[in-house]
Every structure is written in C-alpha cells, then in structure tokens.
Amino acid sequence: xxxxxxxxxxxxxxxxxxxxxxxxxxxxxxxxxxxxxxxxxxxxxxxxxxxxxxxxxxxxxxxxxxxxxxxxxxxxxxxxxxxxxxxxxxxxxxxxxxxxxxxxxxxxxxxxxxxxxxxxxxxxxxxxxxxxxxxxxxxxxxxxxxxxxxxxxxxxxxxxxxxxxxxxxxxxxxxxxxxxxxxxxxxxxxxxxxxxxxxxxxxxxxxxxxxxxxxxxxxxxxxxxxxxxxxxxxxxxxxxxxxxxxxxxxxxxxxxxxxxxxxxxxxxxxxxxxxxxxxxxxxxxxxxxxxxxx
Length: 294
Hints:
alpha/beta; Arc Repressor Mutant, subunit A; 5 strands
C-alpha cells in the first residue's frame, strides 16, 4: 500500500470540508483531528463519537471517491502498524532492529504483535465479556465455527473451552459445511463465529442461517459490522493488523484466552471439576511424555 495515502486523504478532507454538508463536514473534521482512533475504531464507534449515522460515514467515503468506507479507512489502519502506541517499548526491540535486515523485520513484527495485543485487550470491555460468557454458559449448544487460517483459533477455543463447557461443538464436522451442522440449532443455542478481513463467505452464510433459526451469534472479528444481513448478539473485536501480507492473530488469541478465563471463572465448581477429571484421565493414560530417570 502507498504509505502516503493516509496523508493524501487527510489533505483532501481539509481541502474539501468547507464545501461539504454539515454532517459530512463534522465527520471530516473528526478524521483529521483523530486519525489514530479512526483507524482503530469500528464504523459504529466512529459514528457514535461523531454523533452521526453509519450511513453518513459511507456517504463521506463515496464523496471522497472511495468505493466504500473500508477503502477510505484502510490507509489509516495500515499506518497503525508503525504508530500503534505501546505503554512501554522494550529495549531489546532496538537491539534486535540493529541486527541486520531480518532483525529489522523481526523487530517490526514483534512490536506490532505486542501493540495489537494491548489494543485488542484494551477494547474488550467487561460488559461484552460478561455478555458473551453468560450466553455460552446458558446455551443448550455452543457451536464454534471458522475456516482456513482462522480455524486454528476456533480449534483452540473448542479444545480448551469444552473442558469447562461440554456443550461446545466445533463445526463443520466430517467435511460438511457449517450450515449442515446447524440444521438442528434454535433459539436456545449460540454460534461463536470467527472471521477476519477478508471475511469468509462460508462464515457469513452460517451466521445468516443461524440467525434465521433464532440462534444467538457471538462474532469474533476485527470489525463489528461485516454484513448488513445479520446482527450479532455481541461482537468481540481484535486487531489483526500485521507487517506482512497476512493477518496477525496475536490479538485475537489474547481475546480468546480472556474468554476462556471467563468461562472457567463463571463456570464455577462444576467447570473446575470437569477440568480436573480431564487432567486425571490424561495422566492415567500416559498422554504426557515423561523422561526416564537415570
């Protein structure tokens, strides 16, 4: 991406704001004054801060010559790779950066990972956490779904989570589609759907299908509005900004670990007893390698 696009967009907003309608002018001024927040926040959060509708933000993007809101915001998001604030920058980052070309790459990737973990956890409000965990604990079935690289995150959430919450199921199973495994889902169930830019068509379709059946949706993503065709009950947002072509899931993993901690805590004594039984079973069946004493 052209690193000057953010500056060009800000300059264009400054230049054209005077001829804009009042609400569009308000948003333009906000972006110019708060470029970091604009890059980090969801469209709903930006609209709330500006006191306008999300439609106004879309209109501004179109008026500025972009194909959509996300295209206008992307340069601001991309710039966060190097500008996201860290509470403390470790000294070893600078030492690593001085170790040659690969050292610089490693230093930039390390700093980015720490920054997005910090920002993702900072944005995970206790209210959202409690709502998500409460929904999962009260559901008859908790379906967890993701595809491609994000499937690893879903697998981890299911593998650990089912020890505290036996109603958790990882879908799709047996090479089916997620919709096949949601055929019996209803309003007593919850679907935890994980998808990040670029969003997977299969996951969007599964969410739409689940919502038609009354199933509540917990969305884990980098954006809380990824489709106008379904509305999640709660959205857990994690940054996946990276220094390379693919998303960095360090922030998403940190959010999932917080969810797992919440499940164990709110699951109470029964959750802890199930975890203990799993641990005992594994030890009895020699699941863990133990070195021979010499």
